[in-house]
Every structure is written in structure tokens, then in C-alpha cells.
Amino acid sequence: MTDSYRHKGLRKKLVNTISEKGIKDKRILEAIGKVPRHNFMDSGFIEFAYRDQAFPIGAGQTISQPYTVAFQTELLQVKKHDKILEIGTGSGYQCAILLELGAKVYTIERHRELYLKSRALLTEMGYKPYFFYGDGYLGQPKFSPFDKIIITAGASEIPKELLKQLKIGGRMVVPVGGGSGQVMMTIDRIDEDEYKELEHGYFAFVPMLKGKQ
Ligand code: SAH
After folding, report:
1. Is 109 a pocket residue for ligand 1 (Cβ < 6 Å)?
2. Element (H, E) at 176
3. pLDDT digits (tens, 9 = 90+) for 163-185
4. Domain 5-203 indexed as CATH 3.20.20.80
5. For 143-170, what is each residue's pLDDT tens digit?
6. Is-cis flag, bond preceding 145, omega within 30?
7. Where are the domains of the chain?
8. Pocket mutation for ligand 1, best pick of 156, 209, 212, 213 (most atoms within 8 Å of C-beta)
9. pTM > 0.90
């Protein structure tokens, strides 16, 4: 896993692109500038690692576009030591960004192949989230409540079970929509039974599916 000057240079350009697209949080830009995204992609795609695009990671899934990762992370308002549940480990890239921000991350993946691959990679890179192989719709009740929940696949509706696992004062970021496009939503838990929903524009994600595979 080399990180050459060329990789670093390309990463700097990517940070500029994302910043020009409207990401303001310096800590997030720093994290994007630090995490070697090319490690998270199959060798055939390494040349594309620093383009602001989504790419295949196997099992019919994709590593999210860096701008989308930054946008969701910004909406999540990550504080150091926040306890965060991530649904859809995928390549592990979003997880690495959250860990760089000082969060404690619990990440779930439903594809066994991707779960094993990202677990091995993140561990090799020195990242230490809690890994789970399972259905993210069920969350991780044993470890709840969470300060924040981030869903990185398109959910056909807001997952009810996950709302219960959010701390009062906590926030969920979830792309909602069953078709090819989703609306990015934040859901703040105001009280035991009170939630506030806001919409933040349209994105395209692979679907959030039930069950394990
Ligand atoms: N955060 C990832 C994005 C990967 S794409 C990254 O940075 O690379 C979304 C991922 O969500 C896919 O890997 C897909 O398998 C996973 N996924 C879809 N439905 C899920 C579910 N119900 N539970 C857990 N993971 C799910």
C-alpha cells in the first residue's frame, strides 16, 4: 500500500474540487486530503481514485463519490468521540473519514465478501472501528443509543428501528428513495417521540436491501 507524491498531489486537487463544490468544514477537507482513497479501490481503478466519482468495489456495489462522502459527513456534524453507527461499510472509505474526525464508529455491511475485505483493509491501515456483518435495517440495539447514524445506501423509507437507536439530541443522515434517485435527509431526535426532518437535495445511491448476503 504505497502512497506516492503523485497520489498526494492528486488528493490535493480532489480536496480543491470538493471545496469548490461547497464543502466548508476544514476538518473534513483535511480528512479527505489525508485518507489514501486508492487503497479502497480495485487495482484496475486506481487511476480513477482521485476523480470525484463513484466506482465499482465488487459485489455490484460502489465506493461513494468523494463529494457525497464529504456532504454526508458535513451534515452529520461529527464531534470528537461521537459514537456513530454507519450502515453500509462497503469499501470502508467513509468509515475511515469518520475515524479521522475522532469518532468511535460501529459499521455494518450485509455483503459478506465486502465485510471481510473492508475489515481486512481498514485493520491493515490501522483503523479500528467495530465491524458487523448483518442487516443494517436492524441496527445494533446492543450498542445503542448512538450520537449519530449515517446510512450510505438508498433507503426506500426511513428505517424505523434505527430511529429508536438514536440518542435524544442525535442526528441521522439518510438518502431516502426507492428508485434510482434519493433525497438526502437529516432527522434530528428532539425528544422521546419527536423528530425533525429536513431535506438537502438529490443524490444517487445503490439500494439499501434487507437481509444478509
Ligand atoms: N460507505 C461505503 C458506501 C458503499 S455503497 C463506502 O464508503 O464505500 C453502500 C453499501 O451499503 C454497499 O456495500 C451495500 O452492500 C451496503 N448495504 C446495502 N444495504 C445494507 C443493509 N441493509 N445493511 C448493511 N449494509 C447494506
Report:
1. yes
2. strand 166-176
3. 999 999 999 999 999 888 999 99
4. no
5. 999 999 999 999 999 999 999 999 999 9
6. yes
7. 5-203
8. 209
9. yes
